[in-house]
Predict the 3D structure of the following.
Amino acid sequence: MNPLHWSLGLGHCHSSLLARFLTPQFGYNGSFVPSPGGDASRGDWISSAWDLEKHEGEAVPGTCVVGLQWGDEAKGKIVDLLTRDHDIVVRYQGGANAGHTVVVGEEVYKLSLLPSGVLTSGVTCVIAGGVVFHPTKAIAELDELSSRSVEDYDNLKISDRVHVIYPWHFAEDRVLDQNTADGENIGTTGRGIGPCYRDKVGRSYAIRLGDMYRNTFRKQVDHIVGVKNELLTAMAGAKDFEPLRASAIYEEYSAYADRLEPYVDDTTELLLSAAEEGKKILFEGAQGALLDVDHGTYPFVTSSNSSGVGISNGSGVPARYINKVFGIVKAYTSRVGGGPFPTELDNEIGQRIRDQGNEYGTVTKRPRRCGWLDTVAVRYTSRLSGADSICVMLLDVLSGLDELKICTAYRLGGKQSNQYPSHVDDLRLVEPVYETLPGWREDLSKASSLADLPANALAYVKRIGELVGVPVEIVSVGPARSQTISVN
Ligand code: IMP
């Protein structure tokens, strides 16, 4: 293997793409090779090349695609483009709260639980143990793919460690108050995600997929339904809550277990062996890094580690096998649900972006809140996720605006800083400091190379790379595979 490709953890195909993307013009100013010891201050690039020859032949197979904002950055498209160069595609956190839209030719696929990789034949798709798994949804998505003649999902592997979402989790999302202490609503997707993760760490009322094949399954369901009925009845208040029936749930979920049995596996073992054998693994992040339960805008977050830090705990693959992280960034910002959003545009421009970008939830159909690009946030999440490069998505949506603003710093208590606040109350108070760039009128959707972009669009992308401190590798100007520009 070409040592350069090895150093980037790339297969033969997309490595050449990548090599073409690396250019000083887009914020990249030196050797691409980050410190092998893991330089904490990402964005500082070491100038001397790592001794590539020395590492020739070692397996470094892991590539990850992770959203750097509040989700919906169009990760599915990049995963779809990279999938064919990989042996395995892995979803490792979140559940059916995430929506991926993938456009293949004329066909539009909307998946929420299955990895986008199911659309590419010959690739093994893994739902790893860190996912909370809604069997009804998984089966519905498999059936939908079958009905559209996508039959290659024989290679689907679902971890026997995934925690399963049960009707009581949906009931909890509905019945329990989703407000935070200060009264603002988190605005969850209502898919039982938080309640299922809560039971996972609580341990007493959790059922993993592997449990459903044991003869203790019925007893577990009976026990949990008894407790949940008491809790939910007490907490429902004015909200309707019809007590759950253990026997019906047991019958229903046993049928799911039978249907899914061919796909159930110990994926931790499978992935460890694959990594050790040097197979190429693509990790598909769900949501975005700002929704990370530990490092995001807590409590307005999801319940898993949706930044790059979640790859290992969700998949079981140690960080040493993950050496290439694509950070996915929308050319602007969007957010669904509650929580502060410093660059939000609650005005005509925001509405225009929402309409042009079709910013309505894939899963919930809720209108997304839209605003200017915030590079304080993206610089933070890019460092947190260890992004080697960024992909700027939905650039075409910004056509037609006279000028564009990029947030470059925050002002708080009279001080200016580019550090992302750790407390949500400070994030509420920050005042964004903007840089204004000229807009462009041209339609970008047919652009296939950087040369096709108007000068102002090019300058905008270049500035993003500079401000984030990571090279821009891909620019996307529409949902189709063909509407993708390699930065070279
Ligand atoms: P939950 O993940 O359903 O508990 O929702 C918690 C927060 O994460 C809410 O603000 C949701 O809108 C947000 N969220 C969850 N999944 C996604 C996603 O895929 N895209 C964007 N926001 C999401």
Summary: The pocket of inosinic acid is lined by residues 70-72, 97-99, 186-189, 191, 193-194, 287, 291, 300, 302-303, 336-337 (CB under 6 Å). The longest strand covers residues 403-412. The chain has a mean pLDDT of 86. Residues 217-236 form the longest helix (20 residues).
